[in-house]
């Protein structure tokens, strides 16, 4: 219980902080209004104004986002200093009022213990409601405390337990007030290289991944804001579930995407059977697609006769092969190499035309008049060029060339390939051993149309790499834009050089070098580009070749080898954080080790961090899960629970009507919380019909009180109460069914029911 005077003291400091926040907000609001009023004028002025409006609006949104829980902690240091910790840093004119939780000085708040106090004598958790302090929770970190308490593993235990036992809302919350030491180490790890975070269900992997994004953006803002941070999650429902966390930490410049979103212009929502997705995800698809592209670089199997303006021209394999070899040997991608092939074929055809129309029948002086030209053909080089140009424009010739070496788009290539059994079979038979069996090719076969599946996306991306996009228009536009920026930057430098030092009055400013002294025009142009109105995340979402500053992958165990190739292309620096749990994957063909995933890209140069404590699942449910799965898969070792809920899981077997009654009871007992029924795909329709209170569908709204999900949909989510239907069917339903059951059983934060349906 906090004394009234202590509460009052904290309240008065908190009021000062909020007062300052209000001032800052008012200042930004004024600047925003002023920027909006500014006239457009030249394109430069307009773009400057838009950038200013964007920057001010963004800052205002950040201030609004931190209104709740602005300040949540205090550290008293041995040297007498007192630091308040909060969501952002706030300064008064002469002193810091609030320290950003990501600042190095705030770190002891998360890692100090009685044995290793990091100079801290008191750590205080401050609970607020609105702008009022409602409770304080103090930990004294001195040697006496160390002697009596030992080195406790949990920091801020009361605040932590209160966060963990609060009802769920269908949206993930940030954990900034109660980050634990093992989590803090991951959040603040260096950004370079690949960091793998392995941990069982509920160990906070997702929370840590999101807080790490916020930490990296804060600490390395210069490097990261221009290139952006990408966070990849398994599906749209999951992204919605986590979507509030970064905004609540005042970070907005992050692109959240599923693997199916990573090919701009395509929304991959087509569903397809797991075995089909598994084939598409195999590494062998790289060769398969390369073979499919080569298969589109043809020569006539039989000599072709092409009718050009009533005259026949012949095209044989021998005519075309040298051009094809030359085009392939150029090392250019399919579309870029096409002109080499086209030129070669046109030369062959032009020679035939020239032979016909330019041949001089008397060139060798058959009549002995000694007046022959002594050249067999009357046409010169320019005549031949005209013939080539005519042929190039001739629709019949163009159609023939298109047949042999077509200009291809990734979508066109894949559509044609899936649609033609013969093309699938030819691509599969490349090399000594077939890449796919006939049955696997049959699984890939499908008619054109119907949209793309998430597993198609890495294949489209691979195809784009093989084909080379025709990006001439985009490159020309980019060059024009750069020239514009350069001219503008030069103008800025001329003006600043002209005004050099005249306006500088106070000494501090005089010490700042003039912009023209430190920056060339092209550097400044780059800077201006970075401050484009659209954020890096927004621009990245529309650019397939965008390279991110850092990539974070959640549920990383689910990604296929082809998806990894795509992601690695988006992050050549390999500055990545991958979080996941190999024991939770239900994907066919999933990796058995992180080494297997990463060795093609970074060999053994990656770091592993492990999270060992489960914050979500109470001890009773963890113990039940351990018992149920110990024989099914002894490799599954659930993490250590941090608390018990005092409620044992229930088990029942019965008819559908009994299940309905039990689920209805659980919904009634929920209070403010959320419930999920997790059932095998084959049971979904019957359960949806029998339980209309459950929200169903491919992407159900998790803010609804009760939802019906498959295991795949439930991955990464959590609910106060979970009822798992037909556990045995889940376990035996797929080769990795034990993993699926593990996922399902570890979703609840309070109550678990396990129900086996009897046949009707
Ligand atoms: N330090 C913490 N303070 C408060 N809550 C925490 C903390 N760490 C984790 N949690 C909570 O525990 C729950 C599980 O976290 P999270 O979803 O990140 O786990 P996970 O390891 O990603 O789980 P899964 O593997 O099942 O997807 C969340 O509600 C999260 O907010």
Describe it.
This protein is 47% helix and 15% strand. The chain has 760 residues and is α/β, with parallel strands linked by helices. Helix 21 (472-498) crosses helix 24. The radius of gyration is 33 Å and the shape is globular. It starts with a helix and ends with a strand. The structure holds adenosine-5'-triphosphate. Adenosine-5'-triphosphate (ATP) binds next to helix 5 and helix 7. This is DNA helicase IV. ATP binds at residues 199-206.
Residue windows where pLDDT falls under 50 for at least 5 positions: 496-518
Distance between the termini: 57 Å
Query: How many strands?
Result: 21
Q: Give the overall shape, derived from the CA principal axes.
A: globular
Percentage beta strand: 5-15%
With helices defined by DSSP (H or I, 4 residues minimum), what is the helix count? 33
* Whole-number mean pLDDT: 86
Give the strand order, joined by hyphens, for the main sheet: 3-4-2-1-5-6
Ligand set: adenosine-5'-triphosphate
Helical residues, percent:
40-55%
Major sheet size, sense and barrel closure: 6 strands, mixed
Radius of gyration: 33 Å
Secondary structure class reads alpha/beta
InterPro entries: DNA_helicase_UvrD/REP (IPR000212), P-loop_NTPase (IPR027417), UvrD-like_ATP-bd (IPR014016), UvrD-like_helicase_C (IPR027785)
Keywords: ATP-binding, Helicase, Hydrolase, Nucleotide-binding
GO molecular function: 3'-5' DNA helicase activity; ATP binding; DNA binding; hydrolase activity
GO cellular component, one term: cytosol
């Amino acid at each position: 219980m906090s004394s009234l005077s202590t509460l009052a003291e904290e309240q008065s400091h908190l009021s000062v902080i909020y007062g300052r926040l209000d001032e800052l907000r008012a200042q930004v609001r004024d600047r925003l209004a002023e920027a909006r009023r500014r006239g457009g004028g030249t394109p430069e002025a307009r773009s400057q104004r838009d950038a200013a409006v964007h920057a001010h609006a963004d800052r205002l949104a950040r201030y609004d986002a931190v209104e709740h829980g602005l300040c949540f902690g205090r550290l008293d240091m041995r040297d007498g200093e007192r630091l308040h910790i909060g969501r952002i840093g706030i300064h008064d004119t002469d002193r810091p009022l609030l320290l950003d939780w990501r600042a190095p000085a705030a770190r002891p708040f998360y890692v100090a213990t009685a044995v290793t106090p990091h100079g801290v004598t008191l750590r205080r958790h401050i609970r607020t409601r609105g702008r009022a302090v409602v409770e304080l929770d103090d930990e004294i970190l001195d040697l006496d405390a160390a002697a009596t308490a030992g080195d406790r593993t949990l920091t801020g235990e009361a605040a932590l337990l209160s966060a963990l036992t609060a009802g769920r809302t269908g949206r993930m919350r940030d954990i900034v007030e109660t980050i634990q030491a093992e989590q803090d180490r991951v959040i603040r790890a260096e950004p370079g290289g690949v960091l793998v975070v392995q941990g069982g269900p509920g160990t906070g992997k997702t929370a840590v991944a999101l807080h790490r994004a916020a930490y990296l953006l804060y600490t390395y803002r210069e490097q990261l804001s221009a290139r952006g941070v990408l966070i990849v999650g398994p599906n749209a429902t999951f992204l919605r579930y986590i979507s509030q966390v970064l905004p609540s930490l005042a970070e907005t410049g992050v692109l959240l995407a599923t693997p199916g979103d990573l090919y701009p212009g395509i929304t991959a929502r087509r569903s397809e059977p797991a075995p089909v997705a598994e084939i598409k995800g195999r590494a062998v698809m790289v060769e398969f697609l390369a073979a499919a592209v080569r298969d589109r670089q043809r020569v006539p199997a039989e000599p072709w006769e092409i009718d050009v303006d009533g005259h026949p021209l012949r095209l044989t394999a021998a005519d075309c092969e040298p051009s094809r070899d030359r085009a392939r040997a150029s090392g250019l991608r399919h579309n870029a190499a096409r002109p080499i092939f086209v030129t070669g074929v046109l030369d062959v055809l032009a020679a035939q035309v020239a032979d016909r129309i330019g041949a001089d029948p008397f060139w060798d002086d058959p009549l002995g008049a000694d007046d022959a030209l002594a050249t067999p053909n009357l046409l010169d080089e320019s005549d031949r060029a005209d013939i080539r140009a005519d042929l190039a424009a001739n629709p019949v010739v163009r159609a023939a060339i298109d047949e042999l070496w077509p200009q291809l788009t990734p979508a066109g290539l894949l559509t044609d390939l899936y649609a033609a059994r013969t093309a699938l079979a030819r691509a599969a038979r490349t090399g000594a051993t077939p890449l796919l069996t006939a049955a696997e090719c049959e699984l890939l076969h499908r008619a054109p149309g119907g949209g793309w599946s998430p597993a198609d996306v890495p294949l489209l991306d691979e195809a784009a790499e093989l084909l080379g996009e025709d990006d001439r228009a985009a490159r020309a536009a980019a060059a024009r834009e750069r020239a514009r920026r350069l001219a503008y930057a030069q103008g800025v430098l001329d003006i600043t050089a002209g005004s050099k030092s005249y306006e500088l009055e106070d000494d501090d400013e005089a010490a700042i070098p003039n912009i023209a002294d430190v920056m060339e025009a092209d550097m400044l142009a780059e800077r201006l580009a970075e401050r484009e109105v659209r954020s890096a995340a927004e621009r990245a979402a529309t650019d397939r070749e965008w390279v991110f500053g850092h990539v974070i992958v959640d549920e990383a165990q689910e990604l296929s080898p082809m998806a990894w190739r795509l992601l690695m292309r988006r992050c050549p620096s390999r500055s990545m954080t991958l979080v996941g749990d190999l024991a939770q994957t239900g994907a066919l063909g999933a990796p058995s080790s992180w080494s297997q995933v990463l060795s093609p890209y970074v060999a053994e140069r990656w770091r592993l961090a492990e999270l060992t404590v489960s914050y979500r699942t109470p001890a009773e449910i963890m113990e039940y899960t351990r018992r149920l799965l110990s024989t099914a898969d002894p490799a599954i070792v659930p993490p250590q629970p941090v608390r018990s809920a005092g409620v044992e899981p229930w088990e029942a077997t019965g008819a559908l009507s009994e299940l309905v009654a039990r689920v209805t009871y659980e919904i009634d007992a929920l209070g403010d919380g959320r419930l999920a029924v997790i059932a095998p795909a084959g049971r979904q329709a019957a359960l949806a019909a029998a339980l209309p209170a459950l929200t169903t569908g491919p992407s159900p709204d998790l803010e609804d009180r009760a939802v019906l999900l498959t295991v795949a949909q439930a991955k990464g989510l959590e609910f106060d109460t979970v009822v798992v239907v037909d556990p045995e069917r889940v376990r035996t339903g797929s080769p990795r069914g034990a993993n699926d059951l593990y996922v399902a059983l570890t979703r609840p934060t309070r109550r678990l029911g396990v129900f086996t349906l009897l046949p009707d």
